[in-house]
Amino acid sequence: MQFVEIISSGPVNEELKNYIDDLECYHKIAHSGKGGAASVRLVVSDEELSSTLEELEKRLKEEKVVVYELNAVIPEDEEKDEEEELKIGRFFKTSREELRDVIESPVNLSINFFIMIIMSSIVAGIGILQQNVAIVIGAMVIAPFLGPNMLISFGITLGSTKLIYRGLYVGAIATAIAVIISVLWGVGSDQIHDVPRDYVVSYQDIALAMACGFAGALSVMSRQGVALVGVMVAAALLPPLISAGLFLGGGYYGASFNKVILFGINIVCLILSGVIMFYISGITPNTWWQKEQARKRTVNAVIVLGLLLSILAVLVWLMGRN
């Protein structure tokens, strides 16, 4: 490990501060009372030192960088206790690496992933247009929507921007494919006018999405019922997403907007409940400096998601009054 200190005669410039705030390593910014001087302290692994210094150099202005070799960390991580220390969760006994593999491995842009998204979108579209619940349920079975949302929640809990970005990227690709298919279908379909359009989002939908998120996190931690919970999560996301695209393509913009709001509420609720469940289960990073950073990011994420959910809930309330 290496100890990196950035010394500045004044406040740290904003570009440098933003880069440091996004680092997953332990860091702390200290300010002096005299002249506004500041120093930034980082603990960086040997492997990441070179790349970190290169990125810091790009953003330095008046600041100076000093690197020290870190000879000891208290409390020190013991190699012999590694397996025991990685046992996590107050509800389940599993290693962090095993849990990460279970959550992360299905979230990739493979050929199978694209096929499942396309097929589930087509099947869901048929079920919605024919108003056949059994067909829509069949689409939920094959829709791979559980993975990206759980990966985002898991990444927030660990303070890992890499996992968060991967979940967002894969989830956005899946959403875009489903929307494109449904919008094009809505443009050319003559059945869209028969689909009921008077559905209004209710607070029961929020409770349903929160329950799906809690169940999703529990299922991946316990390795039980993942497929069934995946159907629950798909039930919260796939029908409103496909319906929104169909209505948009068919020119029913009000109905499409209702479905978009429902989809947004479900996404926020799934991620928020997943973060809460992972956090209360005691899932944290390996090292003490990562734990502090992860806790801070988790709290900030919960606040942001809570505010976003509150805004959407108010919007639902206003829509219900009209």
The tally of strands reads: 6
- Structural class computed from helices and strand pairing: alpha+beta
Instruction: Tell me the major beta sheet.
Output: 4 strands, antiparallel
Q: What is the helix/strand order? A: EHEEHEHEEHHHHHHHHH
Uncertain segments are 76-90
Spatial arrangement of strands, main beta sheet: 2-3-1-4
What is the rounded distance between the termini?
60 Å
Rounded Rg: 23 Å
Mean pLDDT: 75
Shape verdict: elongated
In terms of DSSP E residues, the strand content is 5-15%
Tell me roughly what share of residues is in helical segments: 55-70%
Number of helices in the DSSP assignment: 12
Descriptive terms for the model:
single chain, alpha+beta, two-stranded antiparallel ribbon, elongated, 322 residues, 12 helices
